[in-house]
Write a structure and sequence with these properties.
Layout: H1 8-21, H2 30-41, H3 46-64, H4 67-76, H5 80-92, H6 95-122, H7 130-134, H8 140-157, H9 166-174, H10 177-189, H11 192-219, H12 230-275, E1 281-289, E2 298-305, H13 310-318, E3 329-334, H14 343-371, H15 375-388, E4 392-403, E5 409-420, H16 428-439, E6 444-448
Parallel strand pairs: 2-3, 5-6
Antiparallel strand pairs: 1-2, 4-5
Amino acid sequence: MGENRRNPLFDRLGEFMRDRFSLDEDKAQRDEVVASISKGVVFRGVNLWVLIFATMIASLGLNVNSPAVIIGAMLISPIMGPIIGAGLALGINDFELLKKSARNFALMMSVAMVASTCYFMISPLSANSSELLARTMPTAYDVLIALFGGMAGMVAQSRRDRTSTVIPGVAIATALIPPLCTAGFGIATGQLRFFLGALYLFFINTVFIAMASFLIVRFLKYERKVFVDKARERKVKGLMLITTLVVFIPSVVIGLHMVRVSVFEAKAEKYVSQVFEFQQTRVIEKKARYSSGDTPSRIELLLVGEPLVDAVIENARAQMHNFGLDGVELVVRQAGASDHVDWMSLQQSYVELLEEKNRRIEEMRHELEHYRFSDLAAEDISREAGVVVDDLGTVSLTKGISFDAAGEPVDTMLVCIVTPLHADGFDRDKLMQWLRIRTNVDNVKLFVEEPVVRSDE
């Protein structure tokens, strides 16, 4: 039996993949990366003032509902420093760096929330804009964005050249400063749901960015800090482990729950849009409530229009299995006099439908006018034609469409049948040229019949 030989093709492919995905190229030294990140952790002087200015800009963007202004604020905000610093500290067992990151993180949060609260307390605009509302409802996508964004940020920090666009891009994608400003809005306006929802989103983003940084540090195999005092080392490692478990485990549980909620809501949306599609009945209110306990998840619908019979509703309920909604409770209410209906929203919907219908009718009317003449237009053209050319007897006008062999319309044409009084004095070319200009139709078919012979001639 000969020895098993490795396939050289797989060897070359493996070497190619290792070369392409290697992080060794342009890799900075471990101490250089730690020093750079440690410097960015501290909020003092310029960093602190830039944070305040970025908070004010983000608050203005949220207030006037301007995504461009919010993006500008995220670009200049130095808020990523303590978060990546915490992930690095956990990865290399640097307890001092972790404490410094935590202190500056608390300072950063406090300064940003105080600045945004002061702004919203004096701002004359207090409406709940769509940008503000978007910062109070974290989803599974926020978790994934924070995770991958944190990985990209840590990889960029580990390079010798840190002038790339990765860090600003991560700051935009993970959107850390807008939730803090929204929390300040909640404090300034006394709306607890804005405060709690925004802090929840900020916490989720922060933890998963730090977790991503921690994973990249471990992947890069950075040397961990060694303590001379072994007893202190065991104590520090124990505290680091407890900190990691306390912060990361609840966040992972929350993140998985948010993923399940997003998947359920997507399935519910698809189910309602495909199954409850009726001409005379509309879904005007929809609620999808996910439950992970003993209580089943629920989809609640409010319908208006022609009432659906029980057999139709049962048929819709039987189709839930096809959309992965087994065990989900379906509640269908058909609006009556006692039901609370968002009539303003419904009226707006019907106004939009009516406007679309009228627009379509107007388009069809213009299209119809393009293909036919009114009686008045034909009468005017025949009277004017008698002035343009001599010896004109009768005129018949028809606007039609020419088709090809496949039955597809090809062109619009004008068919004109004239009967002159005398064959000799009739100018055919002059009449055709005038008809093209008068009717704005290039394709004119002119048929000249024999002159009418009168009995008295």
